[in-house]
Amino acid sequence: MDLEEAEEFKERCTQCEAVSWGLTDEGKYYCTSCHNVTERSKEVINTEVIPHAQIKALNRGLKRKNNSEKGWDWYVCEGFQYILYQQAEALKNLGVGPELKNDVLHNFWKRYLQKSKQAYCKNPVHTTGRKPTVLEDNLSHSDWASEPELLSDVNSPFLESGMESQSDVHTRKSFPISKASQSETSVCSGSLDGVEYSQRKEKGIVKMTMPQTLAFCYLSLLWQREAITLSDLLRFVEEDHIPYINAFQHFPEQMKLYGRDRGIFGTESWPNYDDIYKKTIEVATFLDLPRFPEITEDCYLHPNILCMKYLMEVNLPDEMHSLTCHVVKMTGMGEVDFLTFDPIAKMAKTVKYDVQAVAIIVVVLKLLFLLDDNLEWSLSNLAEKHNEKNKKDKPWFDFRKWYQIMKKAFDEKKQNWEEARAKYLWKSEKPLYYSYVDKPVAYKKREMVVNLQKQFSTLVDSTPTAGKKSPSSFQFNWTGEDTERTCFHGHSLQGVLKEKGQSLLTKNSLYWLSTQKFCRCYCTHVTTYEESNYSLSYQFILNLFSFLLRIKTSLLHEEVSLVEKELFKKKYSVTKKKSKSKKVRRY
């Protein structure tokens, strides 16, 4: 018996209430006063002092550890809070200012916890089973000004530890991270409220999901007017620069996740542009956010700047930028009130800044080349002949040559993208299981899958897998030394424009509209097309820009129709006053 090694055991004896313990030969604690032997045992490594005690003690230690392997007691919103923290850190690594995490996203999340009655209210949903009462303030109307701490709390960083905010003392009171008894822990989920959360359907409450985390990130980027569009955000998610797919595997080891948590935090589909766009408006409206900072001409999200960016991306001439700016001015799509997001407005909607800019470029291409599989090739013949005769002068833009080079680059890029998606491993490194009993089986299956993948990869391809590529705002590079990939940025549009007085007009005087409904209302003489009869050049341009933005072609086509509607509505109203005989299609 060894009294010195038993000194660390400070519990009172259940019979005599003395604190005087010793160790038996089997490694169990016994009371030296009444000789009562407990079931508690000590893990002993020194077998010379107590022979044959190491195996018995270790075996009991493992059995006793099973009770504590369930980890921390945590709630679902804490899991989303941790994911938001990781996403904010990823955006910071991409060059976004730290104030997005510490100020904007932190305050948006606090606002959500209050509006969803999970914290910052008198009776949060986690404290009792009944419906909580909200704060005395009326939250159904815009009360952002009445709670300045949600906007001005700049001294409290957002989740410095990844789990808690240093200033959220009152949050811990109403939303405790407690050591609850095992009877309170959900047996169907790792989180305490996983089952309840998956079944909760309360009217007027926006339920947090994985796509909602991207909506929060985009709202924060939009508030800060950062140089990241929604399509860029989703592409960075696709390239694993921002945690989204299997984001739960970054949880601390003590946050056990299984059962109903699978359906809450597990996702096996890529985020959709239109879906995240709608959820962004939904979240902003639910949070009752004020009018966002104005989008002016010097902001990255202004169509004039985005048009220049996408013109460079798809290798089009720089001279087209002046035409896109002219279309932006005529349609009024560059005005501050049109671009600035206001969730409190009656018709709350935000502009699809990247899709709008691309649609403007498509409209300009139709104005210049008509894109009917006829005129663009005739103009290309003229440009080709001029460039052969005047090799020392500034070359004219050759649409046919651009089409051939761009199509080859696009096909290669799309093929690599499809192969990367096909090879993507949806299974996480941290296996998900339905119940705690299934954990050993899940980990064993995961281990077998990893071993098989290593064996097959060795047999199929001996070359090492390429690592994650560095993030970039551009997907195409036209500044390299590859002679086959001509850069058209410096080419001239002189072959498709003509001078008339002090202004330039397009040689093409025709235009076809994308929507039959609009054509019937304003210009019945313009030939209309069905979607299945679009020209090959127009279909290629739609596919090219849709791939860049990771959106559906139909979404871009709708945005092109909206730009045309605004452009020709104002153009028609002007020409009608001058002369009814003049055609609206003349630009």
Automatic annotation (TrEMBL):
<dbReference type="InterPro" id="IPR033599">
    <property type="entry name" value="TAF1B/Rrn7"/>
</dbReference>
<keyword id="KW-0805">Transcription regulation</keyword>
<comment type="function">
    <text>Component of RNA polymerase I core factor complex that acts as a GTF2B/TFIIB-like factor and plays a key role in multiple steps during transcription initiation such as pre-initiation complex (PIC) assembly and postpolymerase recruitment events in polymerase I (Pol I) transcription. Binds rDNA promoters and plays a role in Pol I recruitment as a component of the SL1/TIF-IB complex and, possibly, directly through its interaction with RRN3.</text>
</comment>
<dbReference type="GO" id="GO:0070860">
    <property type="term" value="C:RNA polymerase I core factor complex"/>
</dbReference>
<dbReference type="InterPro" id="IPR048540">
    <property type="entry name" value="Rrn7_cyclin_N"/>
</dbReference>
<dbReference type="GO" id="GO:0005668">
    <property type="term" value="C:RNA polymerase transcription factor SL1 complex"/>
</dbReference>
<dbReference type="InterPro" id="IPR048538">
    <property type="entry name" value="Rrn7_cyclin_C"/>
</dbReference>
<feature type="domain" description="Rrn7/TAF1B N-terminal cyclin">
    <location>
        <begin position="80"/>
        <end position="252"/>
    </location>
</feature>
<keyword id="KW-0863">Zinc-finger</keyword>
<dbReference type="Pfam" id="PF20645">
    <property type="entry name" value="Rrn7_cyclin_C"/>
</dbReference>
<dbReference type="GO" id="GO:0001164">
    <property type="term" value="F:RNA polymerase I core promoter sequence-specific DNA binding"/>
</dbReference>
<dbReference type="GO" id="GO:0008270">
    <property type="term" value="F:zinc ion binding"/>
</dbReference>
<feature type="domain" description="Rrn7/TAF1B C-terminal cyclin">
    <location>
        <begin position="269"/>
        <end position="459"/>
    </location>
</feature>
<protein>
    <recommendedName>
        <fullName>TATA box-binding protein-associated factor RNA polymerase I subunit B</fullName>
    </recommendedName>
</protein>
<feature type="domain" description="RRN7-type">
    <location>
        <begin position="7"/>
        <end position="39"/>
    </location>
</feature>
<dbReference type="Pfam" id="PF20644">
    <property type="entry name" value="Rrn7_cyclin_N"/>
</dbReference>
<keyword id="KW-0539">Nucleus</keyword>
<dbReference type="Pfam" id="PF11781">
    <property type="entry name" value="Zn_ribbon_RRN7"/>
</dbReference>
<comment type="similarity">
    <text>Belongs to the RRN7/TAF1B family.</text>
</comment>
<keyword id="KW-0238">DNA-binding</keyword>
<dbReference type="GO" id="GO:0005654">
    <property type="term" value="C:nucleoplasm"/>
</dbReference>
<dbReference type="InterPro" id="IPR021752">
    <property type="entry name" value="TF_Rrn7_Zf"/>
</dbReference>
<keyword id="KW-0804">Transcription</keyword>
<keyword id="KW-0479">Metal-binding</keyword>
<keyword id="KW-0862">Zinc</keyword>
<dbReference type="GO" id="GO:0042790">
    <property type="term" value="P:nucleolar large rRNA transcription by RNA polymerase I"/>
</dbReference>
